[in-house]
Amino acid sequence: MKTAKRFFSLEGIDGSGKSTQIDMLIKELESEGYEVVKLREPGGAKISEQIRGILLDPAFKGIMGDDTELLLYNAARAQVIAEIIRPALAAGKVVIADRFAWSTFAYQGYARGLGADKVQRLTELTCGDCFPELTVVLDITVERSRARTAKRGEAPDRLESEKAEFFEKVRQGYLAAARDYSDCVQAIDGDRAPEDVFADLVKLVKAKLV
Ligand code: ADP
Question: Cα angle at 131 between 125 and 133, to 5 degrees?
Fold first, then answer.
């Protein structure tokens, strides 16, 4: 996989702490003078946000085909790459994505069973050389994820309403990515105090920024 400098993504099942850690990371990097662009997947560009609406709509549960889901994620990503990520990186900014292509690997490739090969081929087509140089997976158990997200009190979207075994497969997909693509994916224990998780995260990111 060809990777792009200054491009980072955070991954992990819901409640693993991605948004919490990204906010801390942005504060830290901005205090050091970096200009940072934050993105959430799917979304970020207007077209991608509309695709997000389709993807997460609970009304499509049991209707949306697995390949449709795979292609829609990639379509949303292709747009955000062209419209936002490439220009930001070209301007010397740091880009931090809350989820990116490894989500597709874990959710569609692993948990939906579409297969890593198919997903990777499509990822290469979608991303080309615009792929994060470092992805940090915040690893937590499915039970911990459930406990943290239950506190949000919101109705689950189409993907959040999957069963625990689905998320266990997603988690295993992320761990497989960290094992098989260790040059650009690192997993850290997300079941610790936010400051302790952040200490590991910031060390990994800063090692790439030197
Ligand atoms: P994600 O973006 O991965 O879904 P969030 O950052 O939104 O996760 O965190 C989900 C919930 O868990 C939030 O209520 C957040 O305050 C809490 N949380 C995040 N990180 C930790 C942590 N390290 N320990 C305990 N609770 C956490």
Answer: 155
